[in-house]
Amino acid sequence: MARTVSTSDAMAAIEQFHADPENSDSLAQAVRLSLTWFAAAHPGRAVELRVPPYGAVQILEGTTHRRGTPSAVVEMSPETWIALFTHTTSWEAACASGQVLASGARSDLTEHLSSTPYAT
Question: Does domain 7-113 have CATH number 3.40.1280.10?
Answer without folding.
Answer: no
